[in-house]
Q: What sequence folds into this?
């Protein structure tokens, strides 16, 4: 599966490369400061995808990853080649959930339950990047090898062993959340006043049934969106059982 997916991406890249570069070049005249997030692994991390990445690494003579996937560097290389003259730096970001903290699933977020997340960021000046595309690709792959070792260390010690800067709860995010919460509450109250749904028992029953249906559908979608419930994760568990 890994090899088929990898070859498909290779074939489609030739068609999309010029479009991507054109889009990135347009950011040069963007009127405001911006961040461009590149998810170089290209897909979410699951046990099945990790196993596929390890098999691919062995077949290519690459270091077998333990905590990350092998980066797909073509998009990253294009971004560096196009944006190198107007983007000052690259921030290498590593995110991990400590062992003693529950994962921040969508279900927990909707319930208002918090989780601890450790984020490590390292700045690399664009002027320090290699010049050739091959060297930029190798630089990115080496970053992921180092990232893999860093995650090994965190799993063993519970820390990145670097300066910790708690960011707290940003006031701006709190104000935005309060604003939208108030707007939704006021809108809901006015809607029920206008429709008079709550003025009769029939309307109350209809409203309750509608809320129950929406809640049930959301719960199903949330459960199936979790990586441990994906088909890839189930396939990995089946492989382990068959051993």
A:
């Amino acid at each position: 599966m890994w090899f088929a997916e990898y070859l498909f991406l290779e074939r489609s890249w030739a068609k999309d490369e010029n479009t991507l570069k054109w889009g990135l070049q347009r950011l040069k005249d963007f009127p405001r400061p911006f961040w461009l997030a590149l998810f170089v692994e290209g897909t979410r991390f699951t046990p099945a995808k990790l196993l596929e990445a390890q098999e691919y690494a062995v077949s290519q003579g690459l270091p077998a990853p333990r905590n990350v996937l092998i980066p797909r560097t073509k998009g990253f290389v294009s971004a560096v080649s196009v944006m190198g003259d107007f983007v000052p730096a690259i921030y290498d970001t590593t995110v991990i959930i400590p062992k003693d903290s529950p994962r921040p699933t969508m279900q927990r977020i909707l319930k208002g339950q918090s989780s601890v997340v450790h984020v490590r960021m390292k700045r690399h000046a664009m002027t320090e990047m290699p010049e050739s595309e091959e060297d930029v690709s190798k630089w990115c792959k080496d970053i992921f090898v180092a990232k893999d070792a860093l995650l090994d260390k965190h799993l063993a010690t519970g820390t990145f062993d670097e300066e910790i800067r708690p960011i707290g709860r940003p006031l701006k995010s709190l104000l935005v959340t309060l604003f939208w919460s108030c707007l939704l509450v006021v809108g809901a109250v006015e809607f029920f006043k206008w429709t008079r749904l709550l003025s009769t028992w029939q309307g109350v029953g209809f409203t309750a049934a509608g809320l129950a249906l929406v809640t049930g559908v959301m719960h199903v979608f949330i459960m199936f969106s979790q990586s441990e419930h994906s088909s890839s994760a189930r396939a990995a568990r089946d492989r382990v059982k068959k051993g």
In short: The chain has two domains: 2-157, 171-242. Residues 1-11, 227-237, 239-243 have pLDDT under 50 and may be disordered.
